[in-house]
Amino acid sequence: MKHQLLNDKRIDYSIIFPVICLLLMGLLAIFVAINHDYPHNLLPVMGQQLVWVTVGCLAALVVMFFSTEFLWKWTPYFYVLGLVLMVLPLVLYNPRLVAATGAKNWVSIGSVTLFQPSEFMKIAYILSLSRLAVWFQQQKQEASLKRDGLLITYDLLLTLPVLVLLALQKDFGTALVFVAILSGIILLSGISWKIILPVIGSFAIGVVGFLAIFLNEKGREWLHSLGMDTYQINRISAWLNPFDYAGTIAYQQTQGMVSIGTGGLFGKGINHLDLSVPVRESDMIFTVIAENFGFIGSAVVLGLYLLLIYRMLRVVFISNNLFYTYIATGFIMMILFHIFENIGASLGILPLTGIPLPFISQGGSALISNMIGVGLILSMSYQTEVKKEKGIDQQFTPNRTRKKRARN
Predict the structure, then answer these.
(1) What does the pLDDT look like over 94-146, one tens digit per residue?
(2) Residue 221 lies in domain
(3) CB within 8 Å of 183: residues ≥ 6 apart
(4) What is the DSSP string of 173-193?
(5) Which residues share a beta bridge with 109?
(6) Three-state SS annotation for 55-116
(7) What angle do CA 60, 66, 72 make, to 5 degrees?
(8) What percentage of the chain reaches a pLDDT higher than 70?
(9) Which of 102, 238, 257, 397 could form a disulfide with 250 if both were Cys (CB 3.0 to 4.6 A apart)?
(10) Does residue 3 register a pLDDT over 70?
(11) What is the DSSP letter of 363?
(12) Is 102 left (phi over 0), alpha (psi -120 to 50) or beta?
């Protein structure tokens, strides 16, 4: 069975290769970080990470065999289940963890932290938006601003419950990921630029206005009175003037920036860390790669991400399946935002938001969620080859599927 699976030509190994390389790089970077910072916890942490990698790989393998029809049918149930799970952190949480992070985004029982539901909701959300986009296109309405406005309304109605729960969890960083996914799928839906450009313009004006208020001390007090948490204000302050707060709230960020700089071109070598960077095994894992392997090693990691995204795009083009196209777009937007935000925060370009680096950062929820996403991409390639072998039209049409079932 194992031999047959490895020799199955329907499996796209060009996607598996960069993912495996990133997973191995992650294990190495986590080993270095934990061995340096918490050597007494090395075996438990590495053992736990290996379990998560194994579970993630098995999840990707299972999802690879999901058919288009199965995903279409079960997507609404995944969405509802995701919302139910996102309620749990509001009830089952660790007060100490909430005090440290400022967010109720982890399900905890006592002192045991179990999982982060929002990571799995990302996949359910991508599937739901994709299903909605395909369903809306099947209505064959004439292109108009009214049609575009209706589609955006449906998208927002699907998004609103997720953002409300994230607001209750006070998890602003994860909310940005969902916004990135939504933006990518809306752009792919063919929404008129007469709508998109004003939205982009309003967003830019909003960002500039926010910064203008934030840079004023009374403005920060006003934002705090409106409900903005102190830890969020501190993170933005540390981003804008990191070295002014290097000994306090910006310690993590400035240490990370210096750590990356000291790596130079080739790095200091494996298991060689001179600076103290808090939680570098998760949110700041890129600093470990840069300090150990330098610019060359960092470029290799970015190259692996680019290769993975390129191969995912190739699969979409070959599949000729609209549902798959939207799913892949949502997943690619998710991965791109994670990479951009995590590395940007490590470099001091963006504020710290607690976004993990895909396939590399320590943690189970994000890793397994990402591997499920990889499984979806592998499913596209696998199902495309299966349909080619059977001589079946690759284009998935929900209406046509229902008619066939009715005749049967």
Answers:
(1) 888 887 777 888 898 877 888 999 999 999 999 999 999 999 888 867 777 88
(2) 2-407
(3) 333
(4) HHHHHHHHHHHHHHHHTT--H
(5) 112
(6) HHHHHHHHHHCCCHHHHHHHHHHHHHHHHHHHHHHHHCCCHHHHHHHCCCCCEEECCEEEEC
(7) 125
(8) 93
(9) 238
(10) no
(11) -
(12) left
Question: How far is it, in rounded angstroms, from Cα 191 to Cα 184?
Answer: 11
Radius of gyration in angstroms for the set of CA atoms belonging to the chain, rounded to a whole number: 22
Neighbours of 227 (CB within 10 A): 9
Q: How many other CB atoms are there within 10 angstroms of residue 106's CB atom?
A: 22
DSSP lists the bridge partners of residue 112 as 109
* C-alpha–C-alpha distance, residues 365 and 342, integer Å: 16
pTM for the full predicted model: 0.90
CA-wise closest residue to 273 among 31, 43, 49, 50: 31
CA angle at 35 for the pair 372 and 300, rounded to the nearest 5°: 55
**pLDDT, position 360:** 95
Length of the chain: 408
SS3 call for 222: helix
Q: Which residues have a Cβ under 8 Å from the Cβ of 256 and sit 6 or more positions away?
A: 277, 280, 284, 287, 346, 348
What token pair was written down for 355? 């976004």
Residue 269 burial by Cβ neighbours in a 10 Å radius (0-12, 13-18, 19+): exposed
Q: pLDDT tens, 336-377?
A: 999 999 999 899 888 888 899 999 999 899 999 999 999 999
Q: How many domains does the chain have?
A: 1
Distances (CA, A) of 15 to 212, 304, 314: 44, 10, 10
Lowest mean pLDDT among 107-116, 152-161, 222-231, 305-314: 222-231
Give 6's pLDDT tier (boundaries 50, 70, 90). Answer: low
CB atoms near residue 392 (< 10 Å):
10
Q: Which residues of 143-180 are buried (b: 16+ CB within 10 A; e: fewer)?
A: eeeebbeebbeebeebbeebeebbeebbbbbbbebbeb
